[in-house]
Specification:
Helix 3 packs across helix 5. It contains 9 helices and 2 strands, in the order H-H-E-E-H-H-H-H-H-H-H. By secondary structure, it is mainly α. A two-stranded antiparallel sheet has the order 1-2. It folds into 2 domains: 34 residues, no CATH class; 142 residues, Four Helix Bundle (Hemerythrin (Met), subunit A) (Up-down Bundle). It starts with a helix and ends in a 5-residue tail after the last helix. It is globular. Strand 1 and strand 2 form a beta hairpin.
Length: 186
């Protein structure tokens, strides 16, 4: 790998350590580094935790920033809609991440913000699988619109509920993906 990447061992070891800490690689004793598998149980656990944490951030963000938050989200949402209409999944994914980052950043709870940012790095592979499910980006755009409407109305409890349900709905997609491959995914 050092020769292929034209780097010394130290930066390669550090890169592997970072990838291992973020869950992308696993170190098997005396065998080396391997790409981590995606497991059905881990995916369900991840989406259950994310639903709780991010819906809490949504509730706090609506109470803190209200209408201003809705305006910021609407700007990102328009970009997301254009990306979906153009069939650009990479741009959609980028704008979707930005949308959620606006909410998380607005919650005002620094510990929660840090937890969600770290958690989102570790769960990127699952989100990439879900975004590729046919019709998912369009459904995501509709759900984001509902969320923005609840935020505009100032209903923090409704926004929290929509956020939670939207994230939990990904569990059925995860189940479908794993049923299709009948095993854990690399």
């Amino acid at each position: 790998m050092c020769e292929l990447l034209e780097v010394s061992r130290s930066p390669l070891r550090e890169a592997f350590r970072i990838l291992e800490n973020n869950g992308f690689l696993m170190n098997k004793a005396r065998k080396g580094m391997f790409v981590s598998t995606l497991s059905r149980k881990e995916a369900i656990d991840i989406y259950t935790i994310r639903a709780s944490l991010e819906s809490l951030a949504t509730f706090l963000a609506v109470r803190t920033r209200g209408r201003e938050l809705a305006d910021d989200l609407r700007t990102v949402h328009e970009k997301m809609k254009r990306a979906v209409a153009a069939g650009d999944l990479d741009a959609y994914s980028s704008h979707n991440s930005a949308f959620h980052e606006v909410i998380v950043s607005a919650c005002g709870n620094e510990l929660l913000i840090e937890m969600l940012r770290r958690f989102n790095i570790q769960t990127a592979r699952y989100r990439a699988r879900i975004r590729s499910v046919k019709g998912r980006p369009e459904e995501s755009v509709r759900k984001h619109e509902e969320l923005i409407d609840s935020i505009e109305s100032g209903d923090a409890a409704l926004a929290e509920k929509i956020s939670r349900e939207s994230i939990l709905s990904n569990i059925s997609l995860i189940m479908k993906i794993f049923e299709e491959v009948k095993e854990d995914i690399r």
